[in-house]
Amino acid sequence: xxxxxxxxxxxxxAAQAFCAPSAxxxxxxAVPEAASFMPDVPAPSLAAADNAPVASGAGLFAAxxxxxxxxxxxxxxxxxxxxxxxxxxxxxxxxxxxxxFVEETxxxxxxxxxxxxxxxxxRIRYRGGVIKYQARNHFTEADWLPNNIAAGFLRDITGxxxxxxxxxxxxxISKRAWYQAKTEADLKGFESETPALKQARLARxxxxxxxxxxxxxxxxxVPLEELAALLPRIPSGTVVSLVREARGDKPTLVSHQFxxxxxxxxxxxxxxxxxxxxxxxxxxxxxxxxxxxxxxVLGFNLAAVKGL
Length: 308
Prior knowledge:
Blueprint: H1 2-11, H2 23-29, H3 57-65, H4 98-110, H5 114-125, H6 140-150, E1 154-156, H7 158-162, E2 167-173, H8 175-180, H9 195-207, E3 215-223, H10 224-230, E4 238-244, E5 254-263, E6 266-272, E7 278-282, H11 283-288, E8 297-305
């Protein structure tokens, strides 16, 4: 997700009308084979986890397991070959970032077959399922979470887990400023265009935000200092959005997304780790390591994945 990538890059110094089902084969051909990155790992199938109940922790665990070891790739997905501003593939088996890993896992766990899973992915990534850049759920707190809750894919369970200890943070999101800050480097798939055509495209890109009003958002979270005690209450398969303090120099509140699962020795975090791969880490150790972050971590927003 573009806005999470922006947030990640900012903290580094401190530490979708849709094609018919038959088009799935054509989309796959446009994506580099996973084998070119990982010779011993076959590309996963767009299908529900084997015999696992839909949206169960076990189903999400199985679906996500197919991506373990895949390399972290910044912004791997786009609007396909006809995209006006980002022509990255609509689906990737070659590499994922934190949010696209969560999105594809949800789609594969919820979809009953290849076509259904691709359709679910479209509706998770895009407001109303319309594939265009301005309809993509860029901002986690302003788009991705509320739109997927409204679409029936997620249910916020932060308050259920935290009880009276739940907290909330507010921030004014300026999509207008975000679009205005776009540069030619944000245009993906137009390397062969002339400078004049790129400049015209960039002007259209920036204009997408011209009439967008600032938006105040509120995001609930389990406080960081309460997470160790409340960790056992977090259901396996929960989608976590890492919430940080509101700052004027940061465009967002959420800088990372991942799953919490029940592991053989306790809770684990499965995520696409920046600069590494999709991997598992012990949840308790991960939480402990957040205490001294330069961009202060407030806690976790929690969402349960719902069936269709």
